[in-house]
């Protein structure tokens, strides 16, 4: 979470591509690890699918514009969790972030932690 927030806060000192894409990819990667932590016995493949579906549902929910939901999105926490506006690019960023974290989980973490 800290890295994602830092990518937004210190965006002026980061390369433009990192500022534009890194936060969303990290958010989706965090969702993947959250799924893996909550559902310990779930396969990695299912964790990927659940994470992608969850992330995409949150993104598509941004098309719903009702006053109470917009009020929630106008808060810092609401914006961090629910986002503010639908972007197709975010769907791609989420998918890439989840896949990157999956590969870290599958090929790097398993060497150090027996899961």
Task: Describe what you observe in this structure.
Pfam families: DUF2809. The chain crosses the membrane at residues 17-35, 47-68, 91-109. Keywords: Membrane, Transmembrane, Transmembrane helix. This is DUF2809 domain-containing protein. The protein has helices spanning 2-9, 16-38, 44-61, 67-73, 76-82, 88-112. The longest helix is centred in the C-terminal third of the chain and has 25 residues, at 88-112. It has 115 residues and is mainly α. Helix 2 (16-38) crosses helix 6 (88-112). The chain is built from six helices and no strands.
Residue share in β-strands: under 5%
Structural class comes to mainly alpha
Shape, principal axes of CA atoms: globular
> For the CA atoms, what is the radius of gyration?
15 Å
The major pleated sheet works out as: none
Q: Helical amount among residues, as a percent range?
A: over 70%
Query: What's the mean pLDDT score?
Result: 85
Please name the defining characteristics of this protein.
115 residues, 6 helices, 77% helix, globular, mainly alpha
Short description:
By secondary structure, this protein is mainly alpha-helical.
Question: What order do the helices and strands come in, and which of them pair?
Answer:
Blueprint: H1 2-9, H2 16-38, H3 44-61, H4 67-73, H5 76-82, H6 88-112
Helix pairs in contact: 1-2, 2-3, 2-6, 3-6
């Amino acid at each position: 979470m800290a890295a994602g927030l830092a990518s937004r806060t210190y965006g002026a000192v980061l390369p433009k591509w990192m500022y534009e894409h890194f936060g969303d990819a990290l958010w989706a990667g965090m969702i993947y690890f959250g799924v893996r932590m909550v559902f310990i016995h779930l396969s990695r493949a299912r964790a990927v699918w659940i994470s992608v579906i969850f992330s995409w549902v949150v993104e598509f929910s941004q098309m719903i514009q009702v006053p109470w939901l917009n009020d929630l999105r106008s808060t810092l926490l609401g914006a961090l969790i629910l986002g503010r506006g639908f972007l197709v690019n975010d769907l791609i960023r989420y998918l890439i972030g989840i896949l990157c974290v999956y590969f870290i989980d599958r090929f790097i973490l398993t060497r150090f932690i027996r899961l």
